[in-house]
Write a structure and sequence with these properties.
There is one protein chain. Strands 1-4-3-2 form a four-stranded mixed β-sheet, with helices on one face. It has a four-stranded mixed β-sheet with strand order 5-8-7-6. The radius of gyration is 18 Å and the shape is globular. Mean pLDDT is 72; it is low at 1-67. By secondary structure, it is an alpha/beta fold. A hairpin with a 5-residue loop joins β7 (173-179) and β8 (185-191). The chain is built from three helices and eight strands, in the order αβαββββαβββ.
């Protein structure tokens, strides 16, 4: 196998791992029952500064302390992609966009964080939305899987997203890139 093939397959395998996570093959946090509010459990793991204590851990991304602690699953896979957080400029607008474009649902953890769940009743939390002052370009590139790429393009556009790269072919499938209302760039792919 040539160097070009290896350079292409590395990111493709990472994308496949993220897609498997997003499609529900791993359950990083338990889902609340429909209609119920998840209740945080005390965890003697440390406080926001990392110091040991017997109190509930306060997430580092929420200095106000209003966010409930998220509960990891009993057996997350070692070194596996487990959770993806997207920085957004407007939490409510981001929730509206991703709900309308992809059918995502959310676990609200106060005014500064929303956990991302897929469209199904049993879909577990795979990431989160966190409001910040601005979105910075670059960083990891997140790819979502679609069974109908053309319908996904229409849904993104209808929900207010901007198509950055129109659908194009790559070995094994097709994909497109879009920017959400906050400016985050993500991709969507499908098999060929």
């Amino acid at each position: 196998m040539g160097t070009g093939a290896v350079a292409f397959l590395g990111p493709l395998l990472l994308a496949a791992a993220l897609i498997a996570l997003l499609l529900g093959r791993r359950r990083p946090w338990p889902s609340p029952s429909p209609g119920s509010t998840p209740r945080p459990e005390p965890r003697p793991t440390g406080n926001a500064t990392g110091a040991a204590s017997g109190t509930r851990e306060r997430p580092l991304s929420d200095p106000s302390g209003t966010m409930r602690a998220m509960q990891p699953s009993a057996a997350p896979a070692h070194h596996a992609l487990n959770y993806v957080e997207l920085t957004v400029t407007d939490l409510q607008e981001a929730k509206r966009f991703y709900s309308e474009a992809f059918g995502w649902r959310f676990n609200d953890y106060g005014p500064l964080y929303a956990g991302i769940r897929g469209p199904g009743e049993e879909d577990h939390e795979v990431g989160g939305l966190t409001p910040q002052g601005r979105v910075q370009p670059g960083g990891p590139f997140v790819l979502l899987f679609s069974q109908d790429l053309d319908r996904s393009v229409e849904a993104v556009t209808r929900a207010g997203g901007r198509i950055v790269e129109a659908p194009y072919a790559f070995p094994g499938g097709r994909r497109f890139h879009f920017a959400d209302p906050s400016g985050n760039e993500l991709g969507v792919w499908t098999h060929s």
